[in-house]
TrEMBL record, chains A, B, C:
Transmembrane segments: 12-31, 62-80, 87-106, 118-144, 151-170, 182-200, 212-232, 252-272, 284-301, 307-324, 349-372, 392-413
InterPro entries listed in its UniProt record: Ammonium/urea_transptr, NH4_transpt_AmtB-like_dom, RhesusRHD
Ammonium transporter AmtB-like domain boundaries: 46-417
GO annotation (BP), single: ammonium homeostasis
Biological classification of the source: Eukaryota, Metazoa, Chordata, Craniata, Vertebrata
Organism whose genome encodes this protein: Hemibagrus guttatus
Function: Functions as an ammonia transporter. May play a role in the elimination of ammonia in the gill.
Keyword Transport: yes
Location of this chain's protein in the cell: Cell membrane
Region entry Disordered, spans: 438-458
Name of this chain's protein: Ammonium transporter AmtB-like domain-containing protein
Molecular-function annotations in GO: ammonium channel activity
Length: 458, 458, 458
């Protein structure tokens, strides 16, 4: 049985990582021309031209999705609410800093001429949050079975691999993926699934009574769901080109999600023998429509096309939860706590394919002069069908890096020093958190732990 | 006793409705000149002129009000949290699509010249959300006593009638109602009240132990309240003219709500024999100030005038909850679960009257050149007092369509195939939802239903 | 034992205050040139120039922090959730109106030429919310031990003193403090700490079983924490100069908070003998990074500098909770319910010092032409080091006014007519709120109070 005491390990990891980050920021990071007082005032006199006014509201919506959306979505577990929202908070706060460095360094090496310097503004904040989202998807796969140390180590490697994959897709393959169907969702899901496969626990059933929700925890989780759902139009449009592109992407995502929601409710009732709705489906599958238009949302997908994609995404997601997840667990030994395969994996792949098909149909007759914003590479010798093939190649690269990366990182996380919880104490906050007193239904209030609880944890 | 099993009915309704919507979108809906790549780039080179940057932050606030605000406000019921937030989600996701079609078709018939085509952008998204809000108000009146099928059928008809009423008011009568005191609140409330009157259940007291809140459910409901309260300035200003109009409307609403809140706390303590505050008042009446400046908020109401209106709205709302609601139930057989008459009905009518009075006082000496934004019709032969009479006529039309529509739709919803819950199982999630295990206060955790609970539901 | 019945007192106070506010608004408040239809249209034809589009999204984020952030952060107490979010709501709704008057009158006297008139727009809304934030910080210090009457009286005086202090700092001393490290956080914390010192209750331990959290209340509190954390970049940048200043401030705050969070987790585990994380630290100390860059955030602090400041803030905040708060309570008799000294007091002072140091380093070589936005006073005879000394003088003035003001107001609040709760009923909602029925863990549901509970409260 591993030692789960975090007394020295967590402080050392947190503080060392933060000190390293501060040093790297000190060496590498500078304000960009929109955030630097001198540079901005040397270039312009029109304040409204600042990128801030085009992006910051979208950034804040994305920020809510990362910290409230992901954090609360995972509070569905009855005894893991502190860890769900609290480790989400920790991992995200680390990842966004590390992603700033990794994404910035790769970008700087590629574009820079005067040595490696990272120039930061709101786009870096959005991209850092995006990368963080990918890590949180993987977190969903292993939720309840890992220590905060393991999660921080996973984040170190996953942010790195995410940035490499994103760089290959966007810079070398010329892929379009503004909402991250591939870079964020497919990558995060399959990386996390491979990690959880490597960390397979044959005796996880010892904690099975805690691997489920209770009434209030399901309502807390709905806070996460609804915020993710509402702000997904901002997520997909946050880094698209200004003007019609941001506008169109938000619109497409809005209708995709609405169609997805009706599919989710319909199929959730259909697959239940009493015709009852299942909160797991509502909390998760209703969001698949956002994932599935992550690539094509900025394209001329039409609202009609977006709704078809959303409808399909909701359908496969519900069916995945009902029929595929049990098979993945029993046959492939993939214990996917949040079902990220159904919410991010399959809908992400769907989104990649839809993106390729939509790209293949691109033409100046549809996009007019706007084609340079959506497909800057498409010119005489670089056709729409070539773009489509690059989109498919991007999906393949993403799956390869995610699966291979997850495999290696999974083995790293098996080191006993990481302090993973024993099989009997998975999905249990009290392993890593000082617990408050129990609530009582009958008026007496107590702040001490019951003896049984104290025993159980020692 | 009706059969509440949704196994086939809900999937059929959801999927058929969504397929119809997708077909209608395929035939009718196109991007507008702000979301279409070709049209946008043919017209402009200044990205910041895109309507997106004027409206999208407001849209997102409205979106939060619809999905979090309404959804969580209704979670106050102790055993109806899944349904409150979950059916709210379903109905809203359907209604916003259907509203896009209905509002768009009416607008297109009126303005279009080349056949019926609906051109969509962020204004359509806001207007669709607005129409959805009206349906959710009606949902509040019948909350706990209806099946999801009934709610979807109600939404089909209510969206249609809402769109017709809105069209008459805005296009034929030339009424101003940017925040929807009439079109959204008065309409939604009286429509819902008539539906709940028709669906009157003489034996509803069989479920009375569940028709109330518990401690945590009241705190969940406050999430809804506070979000509605905070974002109401965005709601009322979302579709007003750009510039000073949006700014002024947000400002008026801000001060109206603040004044309303003090009135609510004061009167809530006053009407309680121990001087204690009642959560029902705080959750609802404090919002009446937003409803009551829904029409006049964009006008030169002054902050001072807004505060008077807010103060009155909070006062009548608390008094309504305390004294009028019991009479409506006992004498008029109106079982209004959320008290929408007090939050949306009376304050909506107040808002309509305030709007007429404020319109009557309009003059170029107050509005300057800005009068064309607020009252585009007021010219030499179309006086401010004529505008005021049109505002009052609009209120009358709204009440007539709402009451008549609610009457007819109420009878439709009595069809046994709708699967309404029996009197003994109103306000109970387990009728339509797969329930998680019970929470325990003493450390043991269980995921199975207690036998009593299982019995009770069969 | 004082009488806690609010039947007449609360209505009188609320209604009289609101009537006075309405009269003052009627006499003093007018639309500004961005919200007045006539003035706006006389000046411009470009809608996007309206201040609304530069500030309103930031305002809404600040608004969420005030009403959801502060409100839910304080719901951590197990039996004080209604009061936490409900009194927060009441106090804030009052304070924002009163702050509009007080801040406006002082500004008008200073700048006005044609009599005292207050011209309002979105900047007034933000500043009013800021002042409200300061009152809510003080509320955190006395949480659970005061009546709503006391809180409203405190708000009347604190808003007044806040406005005077802010006026002295910004207008006379020429201090920069856009995010309010001094004006909001330091002022609110030390004012509240002095009030709670004067209101010291030697027998508060009679309520100690309620002065703690339970599992769900800690998760509710995390809603407040996460919203404060996410939107702090908007808070600090809401009133800075347009363009690069807003952008840079948001960026600095983003990285400061991320670094602060890692420090918080690290030190929280370090100071616990089992290495477990403490929710109190996570809920509070992780926010200190926002407080500590409240002054310097708009300056050229660099992301690297921001992270160092955030890291220090998180560290001193955790150590404060662990080691200093118990000493303050036992030695200095300061019963600081929420630990505002650790979240707002010390980090606020740190922020003031960082601001002075950063100002001292200002030069045109770093800021270019942008220096006039950040330091409009720095010219030939007004050096950066003079600016720095004014920053330090501002901290001293703030501490003096806060401590002296808190002392006087604390004694005022001891008047028996205020209806403070007895020592045995602190941290208890049922003193001032009509309570719902108890939740049961075993399927039976009841809406009546248990006899013991009824007895206890009478």
């Amino acid at each position: 049985m591993t030692d789960t005491n975090m007394r020295l390990r967590l402080p050392v990891v947190c503080i060392v990582l933060e000190v390293i980050l501060i040093i790297l920021f000190g060496i590498l990071v500078e304000y960009d021309s929109n955030t630097d007082a001198k540079k901005w005032h040397a270039n312009t006199t029109i304040d409204m031209d600042n990128e801030f006014y085009y992006r910051y509201p979208s950034f804040q919506d994305v920020h809510v999705m990362i910290f409230i959306g992901f954090g609360f979505l995972m509070t569905f577990l009855q005894r893991y609410g502190f860890s769900s929202v609290g480790f989400n908070f920790l991992i995200a706060a680390f990842s966004l800093q590390w992603a700033t460095i990794m994404q910035g360094v790769l970008h700087s090496i590629h574009h820079g001429s005067h040595g490696v310097k990272i120039h930061v503004g709101v786009l870096n904040m959005i991209n850092a949050d995006f990368c963080t989202g990918s890590v949180l998807i993987s977190f969903g796969a292993v939720l309840g079975k890992t220590s905060p140390i393991q999660m921080l180590i996973m984040a170190i490697f996953e942010v790195t691999l995410f940035s490499v994959n994103e760089f290959i897709l966007l810079e070398y393959l010329g892929a379009k993926d503004a909402g991250g169907s591939m870079t964020i969702h497919t990558f995060g899901a399959y990386f996390g699934l491979m990690v959880t496969r490597v960390l397979y626990r044959p005796n996880l059933s010892k904690s099975k009574e805690r691997n489920s929700s209770v009434y209030h925890s399901d309502i807390f989780a709905m806070i996460g769901t609804i915020y993710l759902w509402m702000f997904w139009p901002s997520f997909n449009s946050a880094i698209t080109a200004q003007g019609d592109d941001q506008h169109r992407t938000a619109l497409n995502t809005y209708y995709s999600l609405a169609a997805c929601t009706l599919a989710t409710y319909g199929f959730s009732a259909l697959v239940n023998h009493e015709g009852k709705l299942d909160m797991v489906h509502i909390q998760n599958a209703a969001l698949a429509g956002g994932v599935a238009v992550g690539t094509a949302g900025e394209m001329m997908l039409t609202p009609f096309g977006s709704m078809i994609v959303g409808f399909l995404a909701g359908t496969i997601s519900v069916l995945g939860y009902k029929y595929l997840s049990p098979i993945l667990e029993s046959k492939l030994k993939i214990q996917d706590t949040c079902g990220v395969h159904n919410l991010h994996g399959m809908p992400g792949v769907l989104g990649a394919i839809v993106g390729a098909i939509t790209a293949a149909a691109a033409s100046p007759s549809v996009y007019g002069l706007g084609i340079v914003d959506v497909f800057p590479d498409i010119k005489e010798d670089y056709t729409a069908s070539y773009q489509a093939s690059m989109q498919i190649a991007s999906l393949a690269v993403t799956l390869a890096i995610a699966l291979l990366g997850g495999l290696i990182v999974g083995f790293l996380l098996k080191l006993p020093i990481c302090g993973a919880p024993p099989d009997t104490l998975c999905f249990e906050d009290s392993v890593y958190w000082e617990m408050p007193g129990e609530e009582e239904g009958h008026g007496e209030l107590t702040t001490v732990k019951t003896p049984e609880e104290t025993d159980k944890l020692n």
